[in-house]
Design brief:
Blueprint: E1 2-3, E2 7-12, E3 17-22, H1 29-44, E4 49-53, H2 62-78, E5 83-87, H3 95-105, E6 110-114, H4 117-124, E7 126-130, H5 137-154, H6 170-175, E8 181-188, E9 191-200, E10 207-215, H7 224-238, E11 243-249, H8 253-261, E12 265-271, E13 278-285
Parallel strand pairs: 3-4, 4-5, 5-6, 10-11
Antiparallel strand pairs: 1-2, 2-3, 7-8, 8-9, 9-10, 11-13, 12-13
Helix pairs in contact: 1-2, 2-3
């Protein structure tokens, strides 16, 4: 925690963000010191993002803007930050100052303007690791609802679906949480709205697999899938992974394009006797 007459900096564990609340105009050390404290928090908490409340002040001098570009941005990016939020007044009276920074920030982060912390919480939700002590019933329900949507789009049934995405019982899902797999759920108001599993290859220590990325139908196209993917990518990097692989229905060009935007490239097309479609294997290499 950091406090001064110009700024307060706090870590919000429920959404894993560093919250920088500007009180009034400041410059030089008074401006940079709280941002360096924010960097320290981001380094301490994996996948921590940045929120700046600019409603009571934000304007900074040219020298401080250049410092943000040259110092703050590289440090925040290397700490794993993926989202930068600016909380603004409805009249957006600081539009010019914010836009001056956002152009450069957007080269490294997803930059989002909103009107309050509640909006930030709605966008980020809450990602937490699933353990064997969790209730797997709502998680299995989430996966089944998500698969049913895909099944309808591609004419799949329980009998001809991929075994790792088929309708699944809570006990079967729980049994899949083994030493080489990690499950994560994105929650909103205590309800799981997104799910992702990562699996470490048993034969190649550099390779990890993304499994069961799913978002409830009502929350599709809301950014939850990307948030889960960013989280999983950072987690795989923490575990020392260098390559991420995922299998998709080859005819699903929309999803293939989405993964291409996430840095994945098509590796191969595979045919399986028990599946009525070809599977496209897409991969991404992590650079350190």
């Amino acid at each position: 925690m950091f406090q001064s007459e110009f700024c307060n900096v706090n870590y919000l564990p429920d959404i894993n963000v560093v919250f920088v609340e500007w009180k009034e105009f400041c410059c030089d050390k008074d401006y940079r010191e709280p941002l360096l404290h924010a960097i320290d928090i981001m380094k301490t908490h994996a996948n921590c993002h940045y929120v700046a409340d600019t409603r009571n002040g934000f304007e900074n001098e040219e020298a401080d803007t250049q410092w943000v570009f040259n110092e703050f941005i590289p440090l925040a990016a290397s700490a794993g930050c993926k989202y930068i939020f600016f909380i603004i007044q409805p009249d957006n009276r600081l539009k010019e100052e914010l836009e001056g920074q956002s152009v450069e920030l957007k080269k490294h982060f997803e930059v989002i303007a909103c009107y309050g912390l509640d909006e930030v919480k709605e966008i980020l939700g809450k990602i937490r690791q699933v353990t064997l002590q969790d209730d797997f019933v709502p998680l299995a329900k989430l996966l089944n609802e998500a698969f049913a949507t895909v099944a309808k789009e591609f004419g799949l049934t329980q009998e001809n679906s991929p075994t790792n995405n088929a309708f699944i019982t809570s006990d079967a899902l729980k049994a899949q949480l083994t030493d080489n797999r990690e499950f994560y759920a994105c929650e909103e108001d205590g309800k799981a709205i997104g799910f992702i599993a990562i699996e470490k290859s048993l034969t190649d220590t550099d390779t990890f697999y993304i499994e069961k990325l799913a978002v409830i139908p009502a929350s599709r196209h809301s950014g939850i899938g990307r948030q889960l993917m960013n989280f999983a990518t950072d987690r795989i990097a923490e575990l020392g992974g260098k390559r991420i692989s995922i299998g998709l229905i080859n005819s699903n060009t929309v999803l293939k394009n989405w993964y291409t935007q996430q840095g994945y490239t098509e590796f191969s097309i595979k045919t399986f006797e028990h599946l009525p479609f070809d599977v496209c294997i897409m991969e991404r290499y992590l650079l350190y």
